User: Which sequence fits this backbone?
C-alpha cells in the first residue's frame, strides 16, 4: 500500500517538476543572462558609459543644479535634436569625481557634466537601465514585476523541494522493497 502510494506520488511530483521547470527555465535564463550583463556594466562601455572625471571635487565651486540641468539638456538636444522634450528622470551627483550625471526618462540617455565648469563630458545611451528593467520584470509593468518575481522565487523553492523528493523518493522505494522481500 505505502509502496504504491509512494510510486504514484513520485509520478505526480515528476510531472509537476517537469512543467514547472520548463516555465521557470525561461525566467531563469532571462534573469541569469541580464544578471551577467549587469555585473559587467562598469567594465563594458556599450552597457553603461564610463564615468568621466570633472576637474573640481569641491561642491562650493560647482554650478547650481538648476544651471547644470539646463546645460545637460542643452548638451543632449544639441547633439540629438530628436530628443528635445525628453524629461529628466534623475540627477546623479558624484562629488568625488567632480561630475554630475543627468539621466533622461526616455530612451535611457545620459549626459555627464563637469560640476564646476558645466562642460559636457559625455552624451551616450545607458543600456544598463533597460537591461535592469528586463532583469527585474519592470519593463512589462509593476504588476508583472511583482507577479513574475514572486512566481520565480517561489517556483525555484518548489523546484528545489520537488527535486529533492525526486532524488530521495527512489531511495525510500529501495528501502521499502528490501522490507517487502524480508
Assistant:
Amino acid at each position: 500500500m505505502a509502496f504504491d502510494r509512494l510510486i504514484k506520488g513520485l509520478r505526480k511530483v515528476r510531472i509537476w517538476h517537469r512543467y514547472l521547470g520548463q516555465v521557470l527555465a525561461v525566467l531563469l535564463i532571462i534573469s541569469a543572462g541580464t544578471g551577467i550583463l549587469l555585473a559587467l556594466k562598469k567594465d563594458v562601455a556599450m552597457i553603461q558609459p564610463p564615468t568621466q572625471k570633472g576637474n573640481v571635487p569641491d561642491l562650493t565651486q560647482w554650478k547650481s543644479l538648476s544651471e547644470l540641468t539646463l546645460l545637460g539638456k542643452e548638451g543632449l538636444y544639441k547633439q540629438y535634436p530628436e530628443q528635445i522634450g525628453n524629461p529628466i528622470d534623475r540627477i546623479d551627483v558624484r562629488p568625488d569625481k567632480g561630475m554630475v550625471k543627468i539621466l533622461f526618462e526616455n530612451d535611457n540617455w545620459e549626459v555627464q557634466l563637469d560640476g564646476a565648469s558645466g562642460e559636457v563630458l559625455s552624451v551616450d545611451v545607458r543600456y544598463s537601465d533597460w537591461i535592469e528593467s528586463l532583469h527585474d520584470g519592470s519593463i512589462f509593468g509593476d504588476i508583472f514585476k511583482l507577479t513574475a518575481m514572486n512566481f520565480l522565487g517561489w517556483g525555484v523553492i518548489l523546484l528545489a523541494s520537488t527535486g529533492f523528493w525526486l532524488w530521495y523518493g527512489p531511495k525510500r522505494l529501495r528501502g521499502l522493497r528490501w522490507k517487502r522481500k524480508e
Remarks:
- The mean pLDDT is 88.
- The longest helix spans residues 142-181.
- Residues 115 and 166 are 60 Å apart (CA to CA).
- The chain is about 55% helix and 15% strand.
